[in-house]
Design brief:
single chain; two-stranded antiparallel sheet; 10 helices; 14 strands; Rossmann fold; alpha/beta; about 375 residues; Rna Polymerase Sigma Factor, Chain: A; globular; eight-stranded mixed β-sheet; 2 domains
């Protein structure tokens, strides 16, 4: 069900690029497609464009619904639309499926022109910086020289930050939500356990499972269950599930006993039906690799010295995957590099997933910030 004041029916679009894209890992993508959606109208001055960057399992489908699939609601539909905090009556909003994705942009499931077969395990490693470079080319195609804002949560927040460093003259405002300047060792560890679940699935076939007509469902299912635990807070799990029993009594088995187990299995099964395992591997590695301060001896303030944008950084109190302390690292670096920065720490029980939800104070902060952006 769409949110009130939805953008309504939307259509995905595809842009093809023949110009090769050099990648940070050293390889070159010879040609590629980017699938994207737009909402609102680009003004005559082309000054009201806002780019929305998606997180690990997100896509270009940010808001609205499809005519042939009315139950497929955009993942940020509560935020983007007419009269909403990111108001499509004021802004022209763009959502893009990242390279390496599995929702239409060129990725492991796409055909490798050199072999005529799916890329599979041969698809090159992609990074946050590569995604930003590809997004910049799409902006060129759409005639957008400078974004009014780039916004994203989690991995999307890393992309928003990277925009201010790679193309400082092309973005006026950056909204980085529930994110971090780089992953902690614990976060990398969670990603590695999730990847090992996929890599050890007998149906993985070294990443070339497409040719075998199978999907590493068990590995992908387990990876999602691991990830989902980290997206929720202990308070959220306790409030929603507690120790409630699935069948009312203990049955003394390894089947589902508790409601939280049922929930995790449901989420894992659902995810394994629509997401690509190779995309999951690539995307978690992109998370691991991101570290804009690495070229500055670990000095994040030095990395941000070249940024020209104003910033809004938002964190949530119960987000332990991307804790408020990590957001405050970003804010401190921006302050030390004398940048225009606002910070909001939202009291929420929902953990990392808070950035996806319609929290009144959170939305009020975003609305107030977008209201100050002149177009």
């Amino acid at each position: 069900m769409t949110h009130p004041r939805s953008v309504g029916f939307v259509e995905a679009q595809k842009a093809h690029f023949d110009e090769p894209l050099p990648l940070k890992a050293g390889r070159v993508l010879p040609q590629y497609d980017l699938v994207y959606e737009t909402y609102g109208t680009l003004n005559a001055a082309r000054s009201n464009a806002v780019l929305v960057c998606h997180a690990l399992s997100g896509s270009h489908h940010v808001a609205g619904v499809y005519r042939d699939d009315p139950h497929n609601v955009g993942w940020w539909d509560n935020l983007v639309g007419p009269g909403k905090p990111l108001d499509t009556e004021k802004f022209f909003v763009i959502g893009v499926n990242n390279l390496g994705g599995c929702f239409g942009s060129t990725g492991p499931v796409s055909i490798n022109p050199a072999t005529g077969k799916p890329w599979g395990a041969d698809f090159p490693f992609v990074t946050v910086e590569d995604w930003v470079n590809a997004q910049a080319r799409l902006a060129d195609r759409l005639g957008i020289e400078r974004f009014a804002a780039v916004i994203g949560g989690s991995l999307g927040g890393m992309q928003a930050l990277s925009w201010s460093l790679q193309y400082p003259e092309r973005v006026r405002h950056v909204l980085a939500i529930a994110t971090a300047p780089k992953l902690s060792a614990q976060n990398i560890a969670f990603n590695e356990v999730a990847r090992q679940a996929i890599l050890s699935d007998p149906d993985f076939h070294g990443g070339n499972y497409y040719e075998h007509g199978v999907v590493p469902k068990q590995g992908l299912r387990l990876a999602r269950m691991i990830g989902h635990i980290t997206y929720l807070s202990d308070d959220a799990m306790a409030e929603k599930f507690g120790r409630a029993l699935r069948h009312g009594i203990m049955r003394y088995s390894y089947d589902i006993e508790f409601e939280i187990e049922s929930y995790l299995r449901y989420q894992g099964d659902k995810f394994a039906r629509f997401f690509d395992a190779n995309t999951y591997l690539l995307t978690t590695r992109a998370l691991d690799y991101y570290d804009p301060a690495a070229d500055y001896g670990g000095d994040l303030a030095a990395a941000f010295a070249r940024a020209e944008a104003a910033f809004l950084v938002v964190a949530f109190t119960t987000d332990w995957r991307f804790s408020p302390a990590r957001s405050r690292e970003i804010v401190s670096a921006l302050v030390h590099s004398e940048k225009d920065v606002c910070y909001a720490e939202i009291d929420s029980k929902a953990g990392h997933d808070s950035f996806l939800l319609e929290h009144p104070r959170y939305h009020a902060v975003l609305r107030a910030y977008f209201n100050r952006i002149e177009v």
